[in-house]
Design goal:
Layout (H helix, E strand, L loop, with lengths): L1 E5 L3 H13 L3 E5 L2 H10 L4 E5 L1 E2 L2 E2 H10 L6 E5 L4 H9 L4 E4 L4 H16 L6 E3 L2 E4 L4 E4 L2 E2 L4 H12 L4 E3 H9 L9 H13 L4 E4 L3 E4 L6
GO molecular function, one term: transcription cis-regulatory region binding
GO biological process, one term: regulation of DNA-templated transcription
Keywords: DNA-binding, Phosphoprotein, Transcription, Transcription regulation, Two-component regulatory system
């Protein structure tokens, strides 16, 4: 899970990076809203942790702008503003959750996991689509109660498609999840992994949207 942390406090930022990385998340930390915008334009993230009081602007104002522009990344607000009105206003402006500073790190990690599950459309620890189940905690996938042996990249691919089930995931976003930004990727590498994944879970489950990306169907016939 790739997280964009927008926090200007050096001590808190370092502590959050350490705790979240130990919990198994990938962190990208910036201290300005301008830098956050640059990162969002360069790559995709699964979730943002956003401070509201930043040196180059108000996080809540920028949140409203992002939502108006169609940016749908899940966002958890981290704020020292302890008034109930301010926190509720964060939700009304498009935040998915909030935590008032100071907060306990285990609570933050729990909130991050909960928002990720909620945004994926699943209410339990195990994600399911028909007879296909994915356990993100144990990195296991089962089909009709049979454990599937997926490669690391096949698992990452299914995880991303299942997290966004019912919507088209762009090819560039899938390539970034599988290969990162710095790897040299052959032109057909994604298609090869997609072919292998389809063979294992059923080719009818994944629809190719030509020129855009792929869609994992929420329902299958039969």
């Amino acid at each position: 899970m790739n997280i964009l942390l927008v926090e200007d406090d050096l001590q808190l930022g370092k502590a959050l990076c350490r705790a979240l990385e130990l919990a198994g998340f990938n962190l990208c930390w910036v201290r300005l809203l301008h830098d956050a915008q640059d990162k969002l334009s360069q790559r995709s993230f699964d979730l943002m942790l956003l401070d509201l009081t930043l040196p180059d602007g108000d996080g809540l104002t920028r949140l409203v702008e992002w939502r108006a522009a169609g940016q749908n990344i899940p966002i958890i607000i981290l704020t020292a503003r302890d008034r109930i009105e301010s926190l509720v206003n964060s939700l009304d402006s498009g935040a998915d959750d909030f935590l008032a500073k100071p907060f306990a790190l285990p609570e933050l990690i729990s909130r991050v996991k909960a928002v990720n599950r909620r945004m994926a459309g699943f209410a339990s620890q195990t994600w399911s689509l028909g007879n296909l189940y994915l356990d993100p905690m144990n990195h296991q996938v089962t089909l009709e109660d049979e454990l599937l042996l997926l490669s690391k990249k096949e698992y990452r691919l299914l995880h991303e498609l299942m997290r966004c089930a019912g919507t088209v995931v762009r090819k560039a976003a899938l390539e970034q999840r599988l290969f990162g930004n710095g790897d040299c990727v052959e032109s057909n590498s994604l298609e090869v992994h997609m072919h292998n994944l389809r063979r294992k879970i059923g080719k009818e489950r994944i629809i190719t949207v030509r020129g855009i990306g792929y869609l994992l169907k929420k329902e299958t016939q039969g």
